[in-house]
Fold these 3 entries.
Entry 1:
Amino acid sequence: MKLSIPGRASATAVVAAAVLLTGGSIAGAAPVAVAAAPDLPVANVKAHLTQLQSIATANGGNRAHGRTGYKASLDYVKAKLDAAGFTTTVQQFTSGGRTGYNLIADWPGGDTGRVVMAGSHLDSVTAGPGINDNGSGSAAVLETALAVARSNYQPTKHLRFAWWGAEELGMVGSRYYVNSLTTANRSKISGYLNFDMIGSPNPGYFVYDDDSAIEKTFKTYFTGIGVATEIETEGDGRSDHAPFKNAGIPVGGLFSGADYIKTSAQAAKWGGTAGKAFDACYHSSCDTSSNINDTALNRNADALAYAVWELSA
């Protein structure tokens, strides 16, 4: 994604500082360079959203759990990951008498005893195509995973990406995944990052405050590009980080707002319209590909990639 030159320069400086801080654990040794996160092309993220919109349009207008649009969405994401060299696993479960699916993608290499996960829910509500909720998070997680492959990134920790089914029914897919893990495998996950609605048309910039280290990583990125953030409260416990948190796994994430109303102070800080919902099309038929703020999608997707690189280095 292309930021303004001043913003991009600041972000680069932040990454450079992180390299110096994280390098050279042996006294007297020269710092070891940590690969900087790539600048994700926002056009790539939006191209995934276009595909998800087309899938919804061809399948009754939605991508909901147990519907053909959901399975087609999963097949689209899986094909991209398989072609990029990920090891993918489809996990099947049942909810409401319908079959649901989670998609898990592991990047080969890294310490499998220390796993960094990034995930998003792939399902929509039945009322609409769910392009902001949650095509936006799903597309950004996918593009981050593809950037890992393009750069042949070899982190110290093991990277795992996930797309959850039936979140709209109460985090069913992510809860099924966490509950299926052994105690030993749960302990191997050093952090789970969640991205649910990151392109809201009247956006805010909200950071989860569940784990201080993950929270600091996101805030460092946004400080570097000169964007103020607030603590996320609207979706607290209402998305796929909740099962991980309840299992004692460190969690964090980003959010750009749903049906809460933007205040005058928030509009002064972030732009947009005070007195209007962050996403007036939340859970509605108008949550289409036109229901996305490109700037918010740009910033949040790049923050996602930054956090994945920093936390897995």
Note: The first strand starts at residue 87 and ends at 95.
Entry 2:
Amino acid sequence: MTAPTKNGPPAPRSTAEQAAHSADAVPLHTPVIAWFEANARDLPWRHPEAGAWGVMISEFMLQQTPVSRVLPVYEQWLARWPRPADLAAEAPGEAVRAWGRLGYPRRALRLHGAAVAITERHGGEVPTDHAELLALPGVGEYTAAAVASFAFGQRHAVLDTNVRRVLARAVTGVQYPPNATTAAERRLAAALLPEEEGTAARWAAASMELGALVCTARNESCHRCPIAARCAWRQAGKPEHDGPPRRGQTYAGTDRQVRGKLLAVLRAAEGPVAQAALDAVWDEPVQRGRALDGLVADGLVEPLEDGMYRLPG
């Protein structure tokens, strides 16, 4: 029961808080995990031989990038750098080069930084402790929880976009979660965690897979959903999203596109690249200069003397 306020009746809970408060009464774990056992994709980072390092690589690569694009690059990375120490021994520019066209290449630098820290602080082994994972360069709240859960079977709330969408619909009764993760969502996810560690880890993977394959952002397949009969959003008649507009991702003509073109030239080169070669990839000089300056500021490109550039050494 909600505690009474100092001067009056109990303060009302938000919708998400009410859902979290009654989450133990919502039997979601068993059907979702059973569905996962029968329908989970056979992905290499789910194999035991991938180890914690393979899980960590996949989590960095999968951020804002579909599985189909990640798979070939992931395989190449693990073949070249099967241990954190192998990547740490290379120049960070090699990580950027091998990142290819996955997008958001700062993730490559962060993964390289994490490999260096793992090598220097943890004897080359990905730490099992959640706090130590969180202390690694480039590892945030989501990645630490994901690696702890998927690699080590620990009990953590793993809140990616897919999980947040499943919880928003199934429990809170809205079509989409907020644009940014909220405290209410974290409380709800924590309240829904199974008590047993192994079951919690399976629930994390299963709810994520459900959002990726069935409870998708568009054209959700409710007829294939193992919890459709218990879904609060479906029971409410699938009301349309009435919150802030959902952010779309544009690419053509943006600085992101120009940055990608500049990096493609540098990745393909065996040595430093002249300014003229970079100028050739984009006609508009102001935007091109801004994109190049941004790459330098982000540590993705290193300027040399005489107007030459290279990936970071």
Note: Residues 1-26 have pLDDT under 50 and may be disordered.
Entry 3:
Amino acid sequence: MSSKFVSAIYELLDDPGINGQKVVDELTALGATDATITTTPVNYEAPEDTTQICDFIKVVIKGSNGKSAGGETPAPTMGIIGRLGAQQAQPDRIGKVSDSDGSIVALASAMKLLDMSAKGAKLEGDVIITTHIATHVSITPHDPVDFMGMPVSSDTMNDYEVDDDMDAILSVDTSKGNSIIKHRGIAISPTAKEGYILRVAPDLVTLMEYATGRPAKTFPITSQDITPYDNGVYHFNSIMQPHVATTAPVVGLAITAKTVVPGSETGTSYESELVDATVFAVEVAKQFTWQKAAFYDADEYQTLFDMYGSLAFLQK
């Protein structure tokens, strides 16, 4: 069950001394041969202060017919991005905060896929999983609840977390600090691709219902949400930001609550929702790389493009 990997990552990220190396060591122990760390200074008011760091994690789980195998017609590559500000808000908070949920799901998915692969259950295509580790960020005033600060800019996150080999991206982020969706569980967004907000992917709705045993939940996004994070307009949160850095279709996977819960608070991560999100992410990776599930209707997208032209300017 994915629950053991969710629990393992939860406890790991609750460590006040957590860093990228500790995460990579856990992944390597499960058989990861392509897990890397890139370290950058945390953004502070004094840019020369490099005592705190942000570690970017990237792990590639190689498929039997993935791009990494070098075949002539490789299976598509799935991207799973754990989007967040930071796992902890030291020194203002003790322990893991709700904002870490996206990284928990991404890393637990990596652990599950690595465990499957080690046992001989390889996916058809590669899966690239990225996220980052940070423990010292500010808490930013925001309506209706305060946001966790970001250790680096959203553009920097995209530089390290969005990979050109990703043919579709599931961007996972806690999304409890809003009054838009009041549901304890998980929810998916419509698909965003190169400035277009497309219909909610029917294949992903089906997979969510299979994974949870409940009716699928979705949440709305607007044109504002798929524009760059620092352009001065309101964003639901950063869940759709990988869209601005890719031509691949992007779907947000939100962990949600019935009440407004700040991402900057501890004791606010719910295991059942994290397990549901991990199971869903793994199933999407299986079916997408197997070419049995799609993030969007390519023909319909082309029809829209032919009629209305490019909307890629919204990515800039």
Note: The chain has a mean pLDDT of 94.
